[in-house]
Amino acid sequence: MIIKNKFFALFIFTSFTSFAQQLFYPLDHDENAFVEMYFNDTKSNSHTSIKPFFYEDIKREIDVDSIEYTTTRTNRLSIQSKWAWAKFLRWSENKLMDEDLVSLNSGGLKLRANLLLGLQAGTELFQDKNFWTNTRGYWLSGQVGTKVFFESSFYENQAKLLPYINSNATANFVMPGQGRYKIFKENIGADWAFASGAVGYRANKYFTAFLGHGKNFFGDGYRSLLLSDNSFNYPYFKFETTVWNIKYVNLWAQLNHIGFQDAADRNWSQKYLSVHYLSWNITKRLNLSLYESISWLKADKGFDWQYANPVIFMRPVEWQNGSADNVLMGSSFKYKMNKNFLVYGQAVLDDLNFSELKKSNGYWGNKFGGQLGIKAFRILNIHGLSAQAEYNAVRPFTYTHFDSTNAHGHMNEPLAHPLGANFQEAVAFLRYKFNRQKLTLKLVWSEIGKDTLGINHGGNVFYGYNTNRVDINGDGGLSGYSIGQGDLNKLNFLDFRYAFLVNPRARLYFEIGLKNRILSRQSLPKDQMRFLYLGVRTTLNNFYYDSF
Predict the structure, then answer these.
(1) CA gyration radius for the chain?
(2) Domains of the chain by range and CATH?
């Protein structure tokens, strides 16, 4: 009995010790929006366009643990100490509402672990049918000593998918942002699983290295036109250098191309990606960032060590090699008008012919896009009330390559914007967070030109740009291209939800909401969906079901 009591006391002690560490702050946009309210103070010198945020960098600017701790309450059930099982009931209450499921701080190891849940059920009101998602897993993170950080997560999923999500997964052979799947119980639904993990090493205040299997995001917007978290996880090595007002990122990754046929187990085409990203805070208000990436097929030459150079301009190297690798360039900017308002944007450049640009004839090879957005915090001086509006547009054939395998994509999904190319889109958010309560309204409008009868209109990045290109002006498909050409698809999407933060340490929310989707197409009937849902969800990642 004494041994049991000592063990119980030890467990209680490890559960109530100071907050353990973690490697990354979640990529979830709603979680990031609240943190960015502090980051975008005009006195902050943070580099907010590089995500996921390294947790140690956040802690230098914001006492995140204290913010989370202010949402906790003790003894909600008014438990009296004289009650039988009082200690156990108090412990259970704190475990459920305030603390990590497992927390350890001993012998140089800090560890925290929680269940990962995504349990949702709802009714599609037009069809009067029920749909559901059942996600279980774990999420753990920690620190060894003062320089090594790690995290790991695992998702196991079954779902009866909404028809429009099921159609997208069937066409692409992957679940949006979550990799391959298989049919569950005789076409009732889908079954899939995936894992992520990373280790970080902070050598000093200048150098940090990460080795992981996950996602990265460059930009200050909801979308990124450079590299986003839209596609599935991939193995990567990332090296960050922070000096003066500059943060410089080198990223190397290995990507897969499945192809749009039976995605059974087989050896897929593999390629490598090398990225340089330089973020410069010119002042504490103005940031300018430059992006460069190049991808090449593993089958052509294996790993090309010329692209391992962290400080070289890769486009001339690619040209001198006489190679056919896929180069992408771009930039980002952000300007803080004051502590409550900022504007941001991006430009992406795949290819540009100045002589053709001057003609304004819609030359197919002028492949570029842009983004412009605005964020507002503490609207009407209300803490936690924020808004965001963003516009994105990308010309046809951007991100494509003559070899479809080497497009700017991974696992049959674009690496940048989920729509690929040949589109324009507007996104708006209104968010309010007060203690554990959160309201979110999201509106999405988009237009994209789809291919027609095998004719390439430049929207599908996995279609080689020399393959079946539509001939608009009778010049062999050289000119006449504009955004939205082809089968014009217009999407209107609304998501309104209320969320209650069940446990801030586990980032577990109870949610109830309504999604409304209307897709108008030239070649097919209108597709409508109205989905009323509720559930509990761990908010770590973004899964984009709002672009198709």
Answers:
(1) 24
(2) 2-70+105-538 (2.40.160.130)
